[in-house]
Amino acid sequence: MSLILTLPTVDELTALCGPLRTVLADSGPVDIQAEHDAVYSLEILGGKTLRESVINDEARPVLIIRLVEYRDPVTHTTRYGVEKWSAVDFRTVDHTVRLVSDAEYERQVRAEFSEPSLATGRERSTGGGLATFYDATDVI
């Protein structure tokens, strides 16, 4: 007998726990005041990385999706951010409930695999799945 756990989707979790908050983005609306951008950036960059998926080129990362635990600089509460940074754009969303952010992290990793935002070489796109698409990932 095997046990299969199905986790709720991001939509199901946000229906229960409230929506994700957009904290940082290179374009589009965000849910924090513009004057707080720098302090949020510092807190998120200095936060504790819980999960990470990376694509590197020859010299450096060109895409990073990261789940991070950090302290909200305004409310001083613990939040869980999902940061997606690439050579073309960036966006960070967060939530107070880690499970919601975990589900969003997995959604973003799989969405990037399904529809890459960057041009990828043939070796990444030929049927090897997430393990060959990303240079490092914890999503299976």
Task: Provide keyphrases for this structure.
single chain; 140 residues; alpha+beta; 5 helices; globular
What is the fold's blueprint, element by element?
Elements: H1 10-17, E1 21-25, H2 37-45, E2 48-56, E3 61-71, E4 78-86, E5 90-95, H3 98-114, H4 122-125, H5 130-133
Antiparallel strand pairs: 1-5, 2-3, 3-4, 4-5
> Could you give a short account of the major beta sheet?
5 strands, antiparallel
- Low-pLDDT stretches are none
Elements, N to C (H/E): HEHEEEEHHH
Could you give the order of strands across the largest sheet?
Answer: 1-5-4-3-2
Radius of gyration over all CA atoms, rounded: 16 Å
Beta-strand share of residues = 25-35%
* DSSP E strands, number: 5
Termini separation (Å)? 21 Å
> What's the assembly state of these chains?
single chain
Arithmetic mean of pLDDT? 93
Give a concise summary:
With about 140 residues, the protein is of the alpha+beta class. It has five helices and five strands.
